[in-house]
């Protein structure tokens, strides 16, 4: 007869069993995740008030470049392009020049069969979402994709936007209560990278960090040029001076 584990060992065993059965404890990797961009179109962006719109675009494009670096399967979907919303940010489309753009009429991307088919074809259960607006298109897609498709949803809070701070925040809270995992764009990219010894993506990640990561990117530029004495990453005119004027 098998001897039962000591009573003091039971909490540890239960924790391990709980961890095994909780896929949200899995780190995002280039092998287990896919990405969807929802309605990053001018008319949708005009209504965003929860985040500075230029910051929003910067974050979206930074996330997209990260996905390209790690070869993450990426779906781009739009709503009423010609009739209302306008064309997707060119900066985003230029990252994925060969991707199809899946046009919809429904505010809920899950209602479009082409979107469902694209997600299924990518074969990853962890779906990272960046879209407009948080309280409408993101919220409805996330809840339906979880309930009907069985997907795990990771909502990129700073690469999404709502029509007010409250609209964004309460939509995020509603989704979190339903099981959505909140993340930020840089968190996702660095989780994909995980180890700076992974040299096959190191240069591309550093390039997007320097361009899109604000003070962090400025710090990388400073370290490269001032500490490691590498060349500046842009060509520029001569540095002239100083030449103090007479006093």
Could you describe the 3D structure shown?
With 247 residues, the chain is an alpha/beta fold. The chain contains eleven helices and six strands. It has a six-stranded parallel β-sheet. Helix 3 packs parallel to helix 9, helix 3 packs antiparallel against helix 10 (199-212) and helix 7 (134-149) runs parallel beside helix 8 (165-178). The longest helix is centred in the first third of the chain and has 17 residues, at 53-69. The radius of gyration is 22 Å and the shape is globular. The termini are far apart.
SSE diagram, text form:
Blueprint: H1 10-20, E1 33-38, H2 42-46, H3 53-69, E2 74-79, H4 81-85, H5 90-93, E3 101-104, H6 113-122, E4 126-131, H7 134-149, E5 152-156, H8 165-178, E6 181-183, H9 185-193, H10 199-212, H11 214-227
Parallel strand pairs: 1-2, 1-4, 2-3, 4-5, 5-6
Helix pairs in contact: 3-9, 3-10, 7-8, 9-10, 10-11
Structural class: alpha/beta
Count of alpha/pi helices: 11
Order of helices and strands: HEHHEHHEHEHEHEHHH
Q: CATH H-level name of the domain at 28-193... which superfamily?
A: Isochorismatase-like
Given this structure, which CATH class of the domain at 28-193 is correct?
Answer: Alpha Beta
E-strand count: 6
Report how far apart the termini are: 98 Å
Rounded to the nearest angstrom, the radius of gyration is 22 Å
Percent of sequence in beta strands = 5-15%
Low-confidence stretches: none
What about the largest sheet?
6 strands, parallel
Helix fraction by DSSP (H/I, runs of at least 4): 40-55%
Lateral strand order in the biggest sheet: 3-2-1-4-5-6
- Specify the CATH architecture of the domain at 28-193: 3-Layer(aba) Sandwich
Find the CATH topology of the domain at 28-193.
Rossmann fold
Global outline = globular
